[in-house]
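Troubleshooting: if your tokenizer reports a length mismatch, compare your output against this known-good record of 206 residues.
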Amino acid sequence: MMNARNHTVYQFRIVLREIEPPIWRVIQTPSNYSFWDLHVAVQDAMGWLDCHLHSFRFRMPHKRKDTILGIPDDGSFDLDILPGWQFPIAAYFTEPGKTALYEYDFGDSWLHDVLLEGILLKDKTLKYPRCIDGGRACPPEDCGGVPGYHEHLEILAGSQGPEYREHVEWLKGHLKNYWPCDPDYFDPDDVEFWNPHKRWKMTFAE
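Known-good structure output:
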């Protein structure tokens, strides 16, 4: 009998913590995804550039330690991280309502609440993963976490002066050209998803 997960998709709501109005996305992914695959989908939907480490953290009932999946730690952060590409998301997102904490960039420490909203039948006319909803633009990569992002918004609101001009040049000269910058803009139709296998090969190629 064919695996039931081949016929279903997981719908996730992803909300970036500590920012108001919220920056959020709703995505649908194949339910047979690994945590690496989900990581790539989250990165692409949010608008991150996948330049830093990441992890999914689950609180485990009756256990003293959380379960953490991502890229195994080389000793820099003293974390016991399981390789996300070896574990299916269905092993931990077992039913709607299950949540995980997704952290991206252990320096800036962007924390995302990831909620499994539902398990749905796959629509054969659609391509997955897909982003179906969301709000507000992703913060610029390497802007200094939540405090740096708030400073970023204040500088943009100034619209003049040397600090504003320097900031605009920084946005233009980034790995991604963030200018013109509208923090309130987001359109799900603009999201382009990478093939997670190609991203894995590119990330770990020697």
